[in-house]
Amino acid sequence: MQLHTVWFVIIAVFWIGFFVLEGFDFGVGALHQVIGKSEDERRVAINTIGPWWDGNEVWLIVAGAAMFAAFPGWYATMFSALYLALVLVLVALFGRGVSFEYRGKREDKRWRDGWSWALTIGSVLLPLLIGVALGDLLHGLPINQNHDFTGNFFDLLTGYGLMTGVTMLALCLLHGATFLALRTTGEMRDRARAAGRTLGLVAIVINIGWVIWTLVVIGGGTLPEPTQIFGVIAVIFAFVLANTDSDGWAFLASGFGIAAAIGQIFISLYPNVMVSSTNHAYNLTVNNAASGHYALVVMTIVGVLFFPVVLLYQGWSFHVFRRRLTAPSASAEPAGGAEPRRGAEPAGGGGQVAAPT
Amino acid sequence: MPGVTNDLARWQFATTSIYHFLFVPVTIGLAFLVAVLQTAWYRTDNPDYKRMTRFFGTLLLINVAIGVVTGLVQEFEFGMNWSVYSRFVGGVFGAPLAMEGLLAFFLESTFLGLWLFGWNRLPKRVHLATIWAVAIGSMLSAMFILIANSWMQHPVGYKFNKAGDPVLNNVWALFVNPTFVWGYAHVILASLITGALVMLAVSAWYLRKQQHVESFHRTAKVALIALIPAIVIQLSVGNQLGVIEAHYQPMKIAAAEAQWNSCKPCSFSALQFGGFSQSDQNATQIIPIPHLLSVLATGTWNGPVTGLNQLQTQYQKQYGPGDYIPNVAIQYWSMRVMAYLGSLVLLLALWGGWLLHRRKVGSSRVFLTIAVWAVVTPFLMNTAGWLLTESGRQPWIVQGLQKTAVANSPSVSSTDIIISLTVFVLSYILLGAADLILMLRYSRHGFAQADAEAAEPAADAAEPVLTY
Asked: Per the domain annotation, does A332 fall within a domain?
């Protein structure tokens, strides 16, 4: 395999990692006001992703930086073409990114509600917008022979792109629900499971519709790829398992559903990296958008040495905070909606070790 | 109007970069100092250090949140606004950015989560290691981004491919680029100074009000012990960086001294009015200091400095017609803001050191008042430093290889940038307001909370507790 292709695969892996990991963060952020009815429960929902969301988001940064380094042409065309869409992405990232840290720092209902909405809206917009962007890569955008985008903002809203965005949103919501079911106890878990069931059904329908559309876009009446079949089955499994005691398996299934969805975009894309709807001769490909050989060799060595280390410590972090979280029970805190005092939760309220699949 | 679009893209990049870099040095400096405080707690078991670790740790976290999200803009903007540049330099410039993500951002973010949520969960020694991982991660991140930036100042380790684009051919050269080595030392020291001045200001504020005197006396001492060597070394590192830049980017330094014509020996203009544009080259010198510019720029008593006019003629011969002189007023005043405020901070640090020695830090109200207000200076100096570096490279985006005027995205219109710049500025005002509210509130009222957090949890307390 050529080094260009290796880096195409690596970038696809970063995008998959980003959506699988940050996908449940998006889902939790979007659902935290639904699954968490009281202030305490909302805090529990946010704390289920507390130690990890920031590290998960880095997968996006690394995916972008790896595109810049390995395929400067791809990075340059994609980011300048998606200009206004990315401005929206950044604003969603602002509100969401600071809400975690800022929300709990003032005991003021308006302050907290405001940041809760920043978290919710950001978490809905991001999978939607980034989904549109990835869908557009495959569908094609007006790109000229200099690899410059010639359209405007509305040209980004292709039917297939929008469908990809909606699919990513549905999958992330499902993934968030299965995650919350895995990470909480009591009523919150019940609510998360029920939400997983409903969202699972929605995700199955949308996902199948999107897979068919993908087949139409890549054209020629092709049969579904193994990845696509696997993805459809995974989402069905997530739906079936969502309302059972197998929280871990349901979460695993929704994760595989997302991985397969992102995976099939990149599989369908190769050897292109960005399709030109103006003329296929202007497509950006792994060959014409790639960096020099030496830079790719250097980055491959750095990646082989350090990526396993990253996986190890991220995995360790997931292991350290694997326990389920429990909302402080209402009886122990008579004042309704009062702050759960740190280190003062009622004894025996939680600490049940989840079976991580 | 390509010129207008290009100008707007520059305004946006400058605005978002300057804003981002208000928070970065605080993160780097405070992460290090918080790690020092926690190490002191680990070593001495004195609960005071734990309390202060939590107190300044929270200030760090409030600041990190905004530093991270504004950093995302920087990463996206290369491709969004500067696609011609990105396509041209990606083969060299992209590699350090990718390494930054893989080696620094993952480390910083993952271990920040482990540190914040790991109190009372991780063994003490392991938990101490997590804050050091955060501190190291933030310094590594600065390292890679400065490697990338230094390549724009002084391109090394590349050759041209068939298409005429630079491609990497020696990665080691990026790491030993003299502009990087001295620039990195300069930024790390600036960050330590920033962190120390923030810690000193907050401590001084409490000491002046005679609240929690013992705790904040400790942190004032830690801050001063970090500040004194950092500012002393910084003055000479800054000077050395000037010598290096005078060698590789003579325009930058000649402009910083508003030196229109070659001189030997050269006097230093400590203060002047006028003389900042080609049509007005004769300044009203208020305070010239003989020989000082020769010493600063060349390290010798009578060293020559080439003037802007002579460099302009030389560059026109080398690169063709064009204006190669950066904005002289920006250069001149940025340099002086850094040098003069730096000297004042040195005096403050020495005064603090003397008071520390006399055990009077907590009782000198004049010193404490000045120390509170001194918190403004690092932000002014940091901004001036980047203005000097980046504006001084103009008209080049990559020194000698590509001009800024041709580097912006052709597919992005002025309207697009007006929309994005407006959105960014409004968002940044909101974020900044939220950050400031929390920073000030927490600085004033956060001690009790830090105190409660630092208390050992009851033996029967349920795990895990809610952190956010």
From this structure: no
